[in-house]
Amino acid sequence: MSQRHLLALFNDFDEAVAAISELRAANIKGFDFDDLILKSPIEHPEVETVLGDRPIKVQWFTLAGACMGGLLAFTLVASAQANFFSQIKAGKPIVPLPPDFVLTYEMFILGGVFITILGFLICAGLPAKRSPLYSAKVSEDQIGILVKGDEAAVTAFKAIFTKHKALEIQEEAGK
Amino acid sequence: MGKDIREDIAWAQINKDVLKSLENPKKLYWVILLIAIAMVGVAVGCEIYQYQTGMGVSNKSNSHVWSLYIATFIFWIGMSHSGTLLSAILHLMHADWRKPIYRFAEAMTTFSLMTAGLFVLVHLGRLWMVYYVMPYPNERWVWPNFQSPLVWDMFAIATYLSSSVIFLYVGMIPDLAICRDNIHAGWRKKLYTVLSLGWEGTDRQWRNFRITYLTIACFLIPLAVSVHSIVASDFAMSNMPGWHVTSFPPYFVAGALYSGCAAIITLFVILRYVFKFEEYMTLPIMRKLVRLTFAIAMVWTYLNLIEFSSVWYGHDQTAKDQLIFKATGPYAPYFWAMIFFGSILPLLLAFKRFQTHLPLLFVVSIFLNVGMWLERWMIIGPSFAHGHYPWTWDHDQWPSLVQWGIVFGSFGWFTLLFMVFCKVFPSVSMYEVKEMVYHRTLALKNKPAVKGEH
Amino acid sequence: MIENSFNRRDFLKVLGWGGATVALSGCGNTSVEDGREYVTSYVETADYIIPSIGTYFNSTCAQCDAGCGIMGRVREGRVLKLEGNPDSPINSGKMCGLGQAGVQAHYNPDRVREPLLRNGDKGEAITWEKALQLVSEKVASANPGSVAFLTGGVSGHVKVLLKNYLDAIGSDQHYVYEAVAPSVVRAANKKAYGVEMPRLRLDRAKVVVSFGADFLGTWVSPVHFSRQYAKFRKGVNGERGVLVQVESKMTITGANADRWLAIRPGTEGILALGLVNALSAAGLTVPAEVAAAVKDYTLDRVSNDTGVSVEHIGKLTALLKDRSPSLVIAGGAAEGYAHGSQNAAAVALLNQVLGNVGKTVEAPASMPFPQMAPITGNRSSLQALNDSIAQDGVKVLFNCGANPIYSAPASMNMKESLKKVPFKVAFAHYMDETAMEADLVLPLNSSMEGWGTVVPEYFAEGAQLNIQQPLMEKLHPGTLGMGDVLLALLKQRRPAEYSGYEDYYAYLKNAMVAIKGALGGENEDDDVFWDSVLSQGVVKLTSSSNALVSSASAAGLQLPPPAVEDGTYPLRLIPAVTPNMRDGRHANEPWLQESPDPLTTIVWDSWVEMHPKTAAKLGVVEGDIVEVASKNGAIKGQVYVYSGIHPDVISVPLGYGHEAMGRYSKGVGANAFKILDPVFDQQTGELAMYETRVKVTKAGKRVIVVKDEGPAGGNQSGRRIALRMASGKVNLAEEV
Amino acid sequence: MSITNLLQNWSDFRQQHPSDERPHQEYKWAMSIDLDLCTGCNACSVACYAENNLPAVGKEKFSHGHSHHWLRIERYWHNEDREYADQGAQFLPMMCQQCEAAPCETVCPVGATNHTADGLNSQVYNRCVGSRYCNANCPYKARYFNWYDYPTTADVWPAPMEQQLNPDVTVRGKGVMEKCTFCVQRLTVAKSNARTEGRSVHDGEVQTACQQACPTGAISFGNLIDPESRVAKQWEKQQVKLNHDKQAKDAVHDGDKLRGYRILENLRTYPSVMYLEQLREGAI
Amino acid sequence: MYRFLRLSVLLVGLIAAVGSVAVHAAQPLTTADDLGPVVDQPIEFPHDRHAGDAAKGGMQINCMYCHTYARRSNVAGIPPLQKCIGCHRSIESVRETPRIKKLFEYWEAKKPVPWKKVHDLPDFVRFNHERHIQRFVFAQEKPVQEACGYCHGDVKTMTVARRQKPLSMGWCVSCHQKDHPVSATSTKTTHGPNDCWQCHK
Asked: Where, by residue number, does the polypeptide cross the bilayer (chain B) (predicted)?
């Protein structure tokens, strides 16, 4: 059964939220609430209350990256210092801890930052192809709600969107 | 007192205003760009000459092995710190006034780091062997010396540069999407399309974006502090009198923030004028910035005094001799100029009427940076001239034109990068200004009665 | 050590020297570079020549007349470095910087490489055959008596050949000139002790008082005296020797003295006699005649005349009386005056009074082969040449090892004088000022390429004969040894006697083998003897020595009162002989130019040294360019101010200011020889070097003096770097 | 470089130096210089030029502080405002002090300078990138930088002068730091010869160029480990301990009978060169 | 939806793979017959003829018979022309071959043969043949050709020698790192020196 996308644009954020709550409550057949995507020009953390629990996992990447970076740095640096050419320098030990900790620290951060970014790209699904329906307005000042549902659900969507003063409703062409 | 950003400004207007700065440049832009290129040309010429002839043409000596290159290196590293400060710390503290100005501050961070990095290369006697410093498995089976503060520097700066580029870029993704949506042809379109990674402002993207941005900001603050304290360790770890001082790392960090803030003021004035950003880079923001600068100036002055007095009061006669030499010897004019520009001149910033006087601030901020540059030179020059070993003192060693040429050119290089950035990327964060406006509107809605000055 | 089967002279025939791979790019980013360089490849070789291992050959240093034994390190056919020959009694394996720089004389890029014949202003390269032919013609066409040789100090077999050549042509005109030589002291010593230069035993003395003899730096045999100085300082039973230096301008010896006494110039003799008087008053037995002669030299008068404080004279008297034996030496600063002979005689008298003769002043060994003994040079000989030229007595002049146009005072007008000689031949190493004027320039081998024997001017122990042998193949095929040239010339004159010798080497070997009995090889096979001589480098000769005159006599001692100040020329000029430059003949060796002067640390330039008081009076500071003008000329130089000089005196180093010679010396500094006043020692007729009166005026802008010391000067700013303590606190006998 | 190596030899890698527990094994090259014998004649310095391929840089470059004398003679005055320098000067030969804990070593980014097993401070020219940090950190300023490419500079080694260059010592190109090596090329040869004969180097078997030239024998050089060597005896006699930064004798008030000291010892560099104080007679 | 997870994993994997290849490539232990360039020598000297196995027509001359300096000097050296002639004077059978004729031409002109270095280390490296020969040939009693061959390759099969080993620093170290017995009979082992100045001058 083919699915269709529908994008509604709102001027007012509150209306958009209301639309979402209604979509959720309406329990439309052929529409999975998780397929609803909110698009906004700025971040709206408030919307989470209506969108439900969508977990963030970036911080685990950060933790892993930082630990790995630090650990790897220390091991690599220390074992590089302890190679065959290990030479005494200025009476300091071959594997001197303060310098190694400095490097560990730096690499801890670098690992953290890099893997965080990796995590961000993975979790946010970036880089991504553009979704089937997108309006440049969304990056300007309007709120967009993108839903995906069976042909049958389209009318229900439209009704809800119109009710909440959607400025525009775009439909996927063809198919 | 100028007006602050209007809460009722149309978001579309924000887009329009900022995107205008990306439009075809005017004549003045080209003039500046050409001047910058010419400056870089001078520096490249000097460097080629130095590379082929030998480091001797920069007129350093065996007792005076470092000079302006390292001083300017620290200067640029220092300059880079305020971008991070403004952006990361104020972001964590939810100080929303940072929003219109942090983007160019971060760009400044990145570009001054890129400038600083060049000085490391310019400074090397055997530039063509620079890869020896990199830790990579090689056919010689040897590694760099991880004990050396220079290697820490390399790690720290590489980390800082990559992290701040990432920070700058991540923070720019939503704006790049705006650019992508509004520019419809040419290489820019492709560029923005690629760089915006298909950003659509979905809730999932925003959610992860928020946490990522916050995390990197958290990382950047200790990183920035560590970078400049490691640069300070280049000196503090050594046994040179006048360098071997415990207060060097914080002193360097304070100095870095100070020169960075001063540079932000300078660029603020320039951008506000050139791109007509009066609407966003407002005077109240400037006032906050100036107050911040003043505070840091005083911290710096304090640390400077601490350094001097600990040398003076301590029992290391060698360091004391050197301090006296700095203040009375051939370097005295520069030393006192540094004190004047660094500690006396910023007192002007304490006066309310000067805090929004842009022409004055422009001039003062440039002088503050001159002072801060002198500070770095005063760390290098006189120390080498008057070290541990009296026989090798060397009071007559002044940098040659080659050195000045390269230092001069570095400003051109920075300007060049910055100018190009301003035309290619939005130098005011559109989505965050929108956020700022949105939150203020919300606040107004909720508590209409309170309407303070800021 | 040398194999007979192997031709000694070919030992260095290596595949070019390029085969030895001169590494000029040692620090490139190079890895393995196959097939680009050549392997060191020999045709034949001796067992002891191993690639990459240095072989040492003994020879003799030719940088000055002291005759130190050297070992040249030879590797892959190149001589790399000179080291002292431990078997040479003169230097016992040690060397000075001047000697070390010998390799730079050898490898110098400015050496003359082929015979040059004057053609207008230019030299035209000709072959040796043609050159010798020309010489032969010129000599033949001249009146036999009008052929003259002007040389520096010569000794050994070259001297013999030279003598024979002059005999062969029937001339007696051999002039030996050295610009800086202790000729007055020699003459005075001859009078006082009966020998020109007694053997000085610093190592036995407990006190050494030197009247301006820079024996650690430049005087007679500095390396030998430095060896002795070390023993003197360590002392017998740990009693450290005390050195007192009396002079108007500090020398390096003065810089090492326990007490450096700045004396009014020219009053050295007065102080010496004053000391005699004081010693006599202190109870030392002094012959009545002497005591009577010196009784006018009271403490106050002497102090007044010399500027040395009564306290120091007293202390010095006590020291000399208490610590015996002592040694008093008269050197350049004492002899350089019109009454220089008197000064030197007064100093000798002091030695005799102190009873040092026979203890620390010993009779020198005599040379058993007087025909090889060195002829020492002086300036009056040059004067004689000048006179001879003026009387048209010189038609052909050979010049070797002397550079009078550079080093004779302007008043002698040597350049013009030499122009009168129709044919001048210069044996030259460099195109120096005198060679530039020559009609024919014959390039000589360096001392590292040629054969020779050298008799040192000052014997450290017994008499000795030094061997000079090649340390490498000739660098330039167009050069020849002095011995070879003389031999060739002699072959023209006395073919019967000399045509049997293929070259100077053959002559030398033959001559040495002929006297092997006297050289301690009477029982040896000729070749064995010869090889052992070559491998030792030094042949010790059995010799006798005569007793010295030890009785003191003040007869004929006439010391003038201190000189009166000249209003127009208020200052005295001391032309300083520095350890690096000496008389300037090695000015083209860059190591010596780059080696800082020990006292001022100045490099690559000359300077005008003065006391802070003088500087204040003249209103100048360090780096000011001043003009130093005497009646005979003026030079310019940078001022250096320090307190190692008497305020009545300024000093300019000798050896700089060459107008020719080469890239490292030409135009560096100013030539102080030029402005010396023609004042002569009354007894010997030698130039009184320290008698020049000058005035100093500011001339030009201030420059930064290029020197090694930093702005702190000799100040340590309270840091514990160079420490000093009183000698009484240390027991040297306990030290290792 | 493996983690097992790291773990197994951890205590070795954590060893501080110099320490009593782990002295040098076979050789510890050291020097002592008697300042009472040094006459400042510069023979050592010129010998060093000859041995170690040092360029004579010329006046212009010398004036810019680009001199290359690995061994320089310093001349100090002790005449505090007296009219004459009437106690003479004090000469001090200063070269790399081959510190046991050399400040230059830690700071080199590429590890071009290290402490060798023989107690020398090595400088590997080809590893050097020319950051000059080592000299910045050297309290004695005994390191010299190749500010120009001397091998190709006019009049530094014009033909045939380059033939004098010692093939045992690298000719340094531009941008490289260099310093006194204690004539390591000679030490290597001596050690190799001794090794072939199955012994260790005798005292006096190897001399540095400066020691060899010094006319007064002010410089002695040898193996500090060998108790029979002159240097070891001198150090012992003067009660100067290699691994102390404050000598016990300095605390004793009447300890001034000993004149051995090391320069700037308080910086904890543990130099390998001991100087003996200059003496001056009080009776005159 | 999480397809970019794959991309990232791929990226990480790629970096790791490249890295490990790099590390592996950095093990400079490769040897190859044609590692060094062909060096044109004035006389095409047949090492195989002189040192090769008897079975293959060689004369099995000890390397150090000609390269006599190896045991007592830094360099192995080239024999003086004298030495070549010493033997070849009495070997009439090959006297008229072009190479020997050339050899005698040099001898008669008293000119050394300009042999080129085949194993030429950079000028800042000090390699001591004596130490290696003393250790491996005299102390450990290894066959000469094996000991020399470790660095010089299988010279006895070549005519003009050609470099077969990398002679890079890491290559040197790969052997220095190993524990070698101090003598043929001893069980005590030591590794090569790791001191910079041992090899860098």
From this structure: 28-51, 66-90, 111-134, 154-179, 211-231, 251-271, 292-313, 333-351, 358-381, 401-422
User: Is CATH 2.60.120.260 the right assignment for the domain spanning C571-702?
Assistant: no
Question: For A43-100, what is each residue's pLDDT tens digit?
Answer: 887 777 777 777 788 889 999 999 999 998 898 888 888 888 888 888 888 899 999 9
Region at C446 (left for phi over 0; alpha for psi -120 to 50; beta for the rest): beta
Phi-psi region of B398 (alpha: psi -120 to 50; beta: other; left: phi over 0): beta
Residue C706 contacts D, CB cutoff 8 Å: yes
- Count of domains observed in chain A: 2
3-state secondary structure of B35: helix
- Beta-strand pair C259-262/C242-247: parallel
Which tokens sit at B440?
């203020």
Q: What does DSSP assign to residue B341?
A: I
Residue B392, chain C, CB below 8 Å: the answer is yes
Cβ proximity of C212 and C268 under 8 Å: yes
> At what angle are helices B102-123 and B401-424 packed, to 10 degrees?
150
Amino acid at C518: A
Total residue length of chain D? 284
- pLDDT exceeds 50 at position E64: yes
Identity (one letter) of the amino acid at C149? F
Whether the per-residue pLDDT at C526 is higher than 70: the answer is yes
| Model confidence at B184: pLDDT above 50 | yes
Q: Mean pLDDT across the stretch C47-56?
A: 84
- DSSP class of residue B238? S
Question: Please, is A28 exposed, middle or buried when counting C-beta atoms within 10 Å of its C-beta (0-12, 13-18, 19+)?
Answer: buried
What is the average per-residue pLDDT within B72-99? Answer: 86
What ranges do the domains of chain C cover? 1-95+447-478+493-544, 113-176+370-444, 183-362, 571-702
CA distance B237 to chain C (A): 22
Counting beta carbons within 10 angstroms of the beta carbon of residue C477, is it exposed (0 to 12), middle (13 to 18) or buried (19 or more)? exposed
Q: Do A82 and D5 touch (CB under 8 A)?
A: yes
Instruction: Give the one of C20, C52, C595 whose C-beta lies nearest to D46's C-beta.
Output: C595
Q: Which domains does chain B have, with CATH numbers?
A: 11-439 (1.20.1630.10)
Q: Can you list the alpha helix ranges (DSSP code H) found in B127-242?
A: 149-182, 186-195, 203-236
Q: Residue A144: how many CA atoms within 13 Å on its side-chain side?
A: 26
pLDDT band at C9 (very low <50, low <70, confident <90, very high): very low
Chains sharing 3 or more CB pairs under 8 A with chain C: B, D, E
**Shortest CA distance to B387 belongs to which of B286, B254, B263, B238?**
B238
Q: What superfamily in CATH does domain C183-362 come from?
A: Dimethylsulfoxide Reductase, domain 2 (3.40.228.10)
Whole-number Å distance between alpha carbons of B73 and B314: 30
Q: Name A54's Cβ contacts closer than 8 Å, sequence gap at least 6.
A: A48, B203, B204, B207
What token pair was written down for D241?
């301990």
Q: Is A85's Cβ below 8 Å from some Cβ in E?
A: yes
CB pairs < 8 Å spanning C and D: 331
- Interchain proximity E73–C21, CB inside 8 Å: no
Give which of C29, C30, C622, C719 to mutate to test B binding, by max B Cβ within 10 Å. Answer: C719
Residue B453 has pLDDT above 60, yes or no: no
CATH 3.40.50.740 fits C113-176+370-444, yes or no: yes
Is residue C19 predicted with pLDDT exceeding 80? no
pLDDT of residue B447: 56
* Closest residue in B to C716 (Cα–Cα): B390
What ranges in C121-213 are assigned the alpha helix state H?
128-141, 156-169, 183-193
Please check whether residues A66 and A48 belong to one and the same domain. no
E44 neighbors E163 (Cβ within 8 angstroms): no
**Residue D207 three-state SS:** coil
Say how far apart CA D11 and CA C623 lie, in whole Å: 59
Nearest by CB to B148, which of D64, D107, D148? D107
Q: Which domain holds residue A109?
A: 58-124
